[in-house]
Amino acid sequence: MPRLREGVHFVQGAKNAALYDIENREIYALNESARKILVGEGIAGDEKLLRQLIDLGLAYLSEEQPHQDDTHLSDLSNRDTSETERKLKFIWFEILTQHCNLGCIHCYASCIAPNKKYENEIPNRNDRIMKFAEWQNTIRQSYSLGCRDAQFIGGEPFLYKGENRETVLDLMEYAIDVGFESVEVFTNGTLLRHSHAERLREMGAKVAISIYSSDPNIHDKITKVPGSHKRAMNAVNFLKELDIPIRLETVVMRVNQDTISETVNYISDLGVQGGFPHLIYPTGRASNTDIYPDQEKTIQNSYRLFPDFELDANIYQRSINGNNCLSGKIAISADGDVLPCIFARDTVLGNILDTHSLADIISKNNVQLIWQLSKDYVLVCQDCEYRYACLDCRPLAYAMNANTNFMAAPSPRCTYNPYTGNWGNGIWHLDEQGLPYYCMDDAEEINQARTLRLFQSQNNNIR
Known about the structure:
- This protein has 463 residues and is of the alpha/beta class.
- The protein has helices at 32-38, 46-55, 132-144, 168-178, 194-203, 216-223, 228-241, 260-270, 295-302, 313-321, 352-355, 358-362, 365-371, 394-400, 443-456, and strands spanning 2-4, 8-12, 17-21, 26-30, 59-61, 90-94, 149-153, 182-187, 206-210, 246-249, 251-252, 273-274, 278-279, 329-332, 337-339, 350-351, 416-417, 422-423, 427-430, 436-439.
- Strands 12-10-9-8-7-6-14-15-16 form a nine-stranded mixed beta sheet. Strands 2-3-4 form a three-stranded antiparallel beta sheet. A two-stranded antiparallel ribbon has the order 1-5.
- α5 links the parallel β8 and β9.
- The protein is globular, with a radius of gyration of 24 Å.
- The relative contact order is 0.12.
């Protein structure tokens, strides 16, 4: 009898199926006829298909007889059920939620840009705010729960002042002294000084900076503060001189969409790490659709137009065992709210100032359900054969579906229809009853972008 080689997994969709070759990082698409053959429905031509799989090294012949409930080529996916409760792996410490010296048009937290000197402390708008000692206690609790990876973020974290004038650097140093192995500060870079950089190097911390365009005028138009690009790049340069790990992030919106290619090259020429430009998350000031990129640019930069997945054992295992992005993550805002993601502003899981116990919050069912939320529980995605190779963004799906269903809203930028097996004819939404439907309005532009992307992609790893 034929059996799949170890490391090759058979995943069924509503119509078609796929074989995941983890070792060679490839996915083989199977049509409906092939799927039926592999589940033992005896369609004519099965010997030819099985011989092809054997020739490709995906399967082998075995003399062992199958058990009664076996398929011809059984699914070898192995869910991890050993952990009844997931562990904390990564945390955002949002030490300032609404305070910033810039006024970025897409700010997810609607931060304030004060008309004062940049170094001035800004009164907090919240009724209550985490004190320095409370942040220290939260850092200790996070470490005791197994977390070793943290990012300090705002607002602008270099505006943070504790009761005794403590700074973000004091909190970062405390986290490292407690035992955190990876500590990063995400900043706009305009307040970062040489003295800060020297201390960052001493403690072994990392820095992420937002650069919205290679064109200073466009960058400054987004931040609404003239000279912000120059100050940010000055920070990048002296961080490089001190060999401090730097990561530059770019967000695509209408005002900078025509300079994205130049910006990507600009960051590459700097010799620092640069993330792939991503679209804005529709929260805070980014809820204003006027700042969204043109539809053509949105489709080109963010839509899944064909199965160009990056597959490896880590992605696959994360995907079958839980949510491949949110599992093990939380964010804590300046007023103590615990969120599943820094962009999930409306999904509050608890408040550390109310319970004083982070362990109690993350042990709650709502946290554990989000962490364990694989694509098997997401509408439409649950019926897709590519669900264990596709990354998931719950905050984006939630926001793009009118904040109706954080747990089950379908991916809003995927053009695949697993019920027909076709790509590029629309995207998924939820109707007023919370049921998914396939929207065809953008089909022409989607297909144009898909044709262009397929033409440009010569090394697609989908067979």
